[in-house]
Amino acid sequence: MFSASSATGPSSTAASDTGRRRGMTRLAATLVATGLVVAGALTGAGGAVADEAPAHQGGATATLDGLKTFDSAILRTNGKNQKLPAGLFEMTVDGGGTLKTYCIDIHNPTQDQAKYLETPWNQTSLGTNRNAGKIRWILEHSYPQIDDLQALAKQAGTGPLTERTAAAGTQVAIWRYSDDADVRASDKQAEKLADWLEKSANNTVEPKASLALDPVAVSGRSGKRVGPVTVRTNAGQVGVTPPADAASGVRITDKKGKPVTTAVDGTQLWFDVPAGAADGSAALTVQATTSVPVGRAFAGATRSQTQILAGSSESTVSATATATWAGKGAVPAVTAKKNCAKGGVDVTTRNTGDEPFTYELAGAEHTVAPGRTETVTVPVAEDQAYDVTVTGSDGFTRTFKGVLDCLTAGTGTDGLTTQTAEQPTTTTATAGGTGTASGPEGNLAETGSSNATPLIAGIAIALVVIGGGAVFVLRRRKDRPSGD
Question: Is residue 118 within 8 Å of residue 232, measured between CB atoms?
Fold first, then answer.
């Protein structure tokens, strides 16, 4: 079964989503430990929400606060000039932290308070952009990574730069590579910076995820260890907490069955399911506090222009993986990810059972033999919200939702608005420029503080009082396998 609906505008969706996001953020803040943890939550059998796959594949999740440090630029298209703001956005990370980003999607608008997810390049327009590596070079060699504006101006030969003009010049240089845009900065010094960055840029590789689990779904037999799930992170260490439901007997272990209490990049985690355990599933969420690597892409959970990271404070990041087990029959593990090269969503099903797994997807029936893996690409229109459901035998369902945003040329938009109607009036910019967010040991230039700092500090204090904690997700199934 498959359905795709158009992304709604900011007026209707953003208001309702904002309330839910705030509630979820407050809940997450009380669960995040000081340091690094693995967490989860109990789920009830058969719930519709339990069958919906996590939307995030790993890393930081943040809310857009708006354009904060900017000047103006002139975009020329179809023989006409349009003046538009150009500079740095700020985002507040769920669970604590601040991000600074530039736009890499000039023809699409932003949505106020939109939710953003750390996303691999190949699931954005960067995946097919041969100049993507040059954009990362620009980020690493300009503001805010280089916060000594006098030194930056001397190196680029621009003349005096302010935070505003440095941000505008950097954004203009990025747009020339991200959108192949005919754009120039309004300020002469900013334009000189943009020219220098454009000419100097070299291709660099995509940065690794701040935190991810690979794969995000595994399956196997009860009485055995199900996995492995490999930790990928730039954090020095992550903590792994045993299941809260000790009576279930399911543990998180290494390959030899030894319980795992800490993990690092490359650690393999296994779900140790006891013999005779009822058919069911479990999910673990790994959390850490780290600085998100410069150059990571951030895609909107709803339709909102794609961003690229210019700097990060120490921020909360997370990743989730699920395991499904059964005593006999088909045992599927289903995952999905955007495929920008094919213009759709790749749904991959692996069957580790001893019987074929038959399922329906996008109106067609598919069968995966025991021990085999099959990937089906479901076509999705650009800028379209998708809702993909895999329906199998014995009531198995698995749902994946998101928005396909793979192109930089906007569809269905009049003009070339790059911000919401409320921006930039909702920002804190002044004629003298704005401060930039800073965080402990992050990769943001320490030249000021954001308006989210008091909130983050309050969360940190609360976490010290609350302490760490983790809950392991365990769902028992009496008569059918679950895709959760």
Answer: no
Contact between 340 and 123 under an 8 Å Cβ cutoff? The reply is yes
Per-residue pLDDT band for 242 (boundaries 50, 70, 90) equals low
Residue 379 scores a pLDDT above 60: yes
> Helix crossing, 453-466 with 10-31: angle to 10°?
40
User: CA neighbours within 13 Å on the CB side: how many for 475?
Assistant: 25
Q: What are the backbone dihedrals phi and psi of residue 296, each rounded to the nearest 5 degrees, phi first?
A: -70, 140
Q: Is pLDDT larger for residue 217 or for residue 467?
A: 217
The chain-wide mean pLDDT, for the chain, equals 79
Q: Quick one: tokens of 240? A: 């792994």
Q: For tokens 């003046």, name the residue.
A: 83
CA neighbor of 194 nearest in space, from 169, 175, 177: 169
Pick from 195, 182, 281: which is nearest to 484 by CA?
281
Helix (H, G, I), strand (E, B) or coil at 240: coil
- Say how many Å lie between the first and final Cα of the chain, rounded: 17
Query: pLDDT tens digit string along 418-452?
Result: 443 334 433 333 333 333 333 345 776 543 333 33
